[in-house]
Amino acid sequence: MSNAASKTFTLTDNQSGESFDLPVFDGSVGPSVIDVRRLYGDTGHFTYDPGFTSTGSCDSAITFIDGDEGILLHRGYAIDDLAERADFLEVAYLLLNGELPTAAQKATFDHDVTYHTMLHEQLSNFYRGFRRDAHPMAIMCGVVGALSAFYHDSLDIYDPHQRMVASFRLVAKMPTIAAMAYKYSIGQPFNYPQNDLSYAENFLHMMFSVPSETYVMNPVLSKAMDRIFILHADHEQNASTSTVRLAGSSGANPFACIAAGIASLWGPAHGGANEAVLNMLTEIGHKDRIAEYIKKARDKDDPFRLFGFGHRVYKNYDPRAKVMQETCHEVLAELGVEDPLLDLAMELEKLALEDEYFVSRKLYPNVDFYSGIILKAMGFPVSMFTVLFAVARTVGWVAQWKEMIEDPGQKIGRPRQLYTGPDARPYIPIDQR
Ligand code: ACO
């Protein structure tokens, strides 16, 4: 932490009457933090915050979220501005380097990412070890983790050049790995990347082209794909990013750390939500049944939650959801698709936003509420939705991992606990139990 404490926060032990001054640090914007690093040494107590609802785990200059106002900034630039005016690799450069690139920097960056898109040929053998019906996220966890077995020349995390090469490799190879997971599942041959295509175009080509036909790129769809990548590129210290940081804090190599992030993203409370939204909309099936599902979501004895609704940080409309809804209309219009699920989703959103339960808890649609409808219209199977999220989020994970490794004050992540198990007790031999 570079800045000095702006003030102190005094904590008083009501029993002993002793007071402790804790330093308070201000960020550039957003809430300040109370520095509790010396708390245990000074007071003998830990803080207790399961789910980290009030805990800052690091300092970071990458992404800022104001959840009450519904604001998301990357390096100071608003997400809707970036989604409207930049392309994904420009945003990737911004996240990794801190500034928007000049035209020359952008050209070099695009070239460097593009020329790392191929996989070591031996890696394709890896796929053949999986069952054809394996979930592509399972394949992603395995193959991305396995990259560390193939790229030994970029595993030294203390060498800035190797860190950079590993970052390029991860951002560049993720679309190839993802598309291969899909092709494997449907029994089609793998497509090699084409270096004259943009990042989003290349992904669509590797996903949907077949050797026997010419693939015609639809610019509306490639723009939508690019925008979906931008909208998912980073989101500060969410579960998967914190997982990447925690894994990386022990000095693990970047490929292993990103594989850990993919595992964390998979869950339906996080990146798996877009898949869960579509399954939920399909299950609801008709507008007449929305009220029944809203009732289920309100019922504390029912584990059902309205997927795509609510967010740990946003207590307002997720700014990404607005862009996603616009993109959804554009894609469906381009494809001439009339998806009843879109009407159902819009009606569900309207009714939930009028419902006291959702209003009082400030539960709004999140980024995943509309993304599934777009992806389905574009021809992605539901099981690939979270994979696309992982492709896009890789640059955020890598930027956060790099920032952590480059922080001179970085320590291994090691939370403590409130122990509630038995105190020390003697071992009882099995014949006496
Ligand atoms: N449906 C019904 N009730 C909900 C929902 C929901 N989707 N989300 C939150 N609530 C309720 C909770 O039951 C809780 O009610 P209570 O105060 O009466 O106990 C209250 O709203 C607060 O919710 P928490 O679970 O405490 O909020 P938390 O920050 O822990 O959870 C989460 C956030 C996991 C995203 C949650 O809103 C959720 O499960 N949403 C559905 C899954 C989803 O869409 N995830 C995607 C998140 S975005 C992303 O990862 C890209």
Structural overview:
- The protein has 433 residues and is mainly alpha-helical.
- Helices cover 49% and strands 6% of the residues.
- It contains 18 helices and 6 strands.
- It has helices at 39-43, 79-85, 88-97, 103-114, 123-128, 136-146, 160-186, 199-208, 219-231, 239-249, 254-265, 273-284, 290-298, 319-335, 340-354, 356-360, 368-377, 385-405; strands at residues 7-12, 19-25, 33-34, 63-66, 71-74, 77-78.
- The strands form 2 sheets. A 3-stranded antiparallel β-sheet has the order 1-2-3.
- Bound molecules: acetyl coenzyme *A.
- Acetyl coenzyme *A is lined by residues 269-271, 273, 297, 305-312, 361, 363, 366-368.
Our Rg estimate from Cα atoms comes to 23 Å
Tally of helical runs: 18
Apparent shape: globular
User: Which bin fits the share of residues in helices?
Assistant: 40-55%
- Sequence stretches where pLDDT stays below 50 over 5 or more residues: none
Strand fraction: 5-15%
What compounds sit in this structure?
acetyl coenzyme *A
Judged by helices, strands and strand pairing, the structural class is mainly alpha
Reported for the largest beta sheet, the result is:
3 strands, antiparallel
Strand line-up in the sheet with most strands: 1-2-3
Intertermini distance: 53 Å
Mean pLDDT across every amino acid position: 94
In summary, what is this structure?
The protein has 433 residues and is mainly alpha-helical. 49% of the residues lie in helices and 6% in strands.
Keywords:
about 425 residues; mainly alpha; about 5% strand; 3-stranded antiparallel sheet; 18 helices
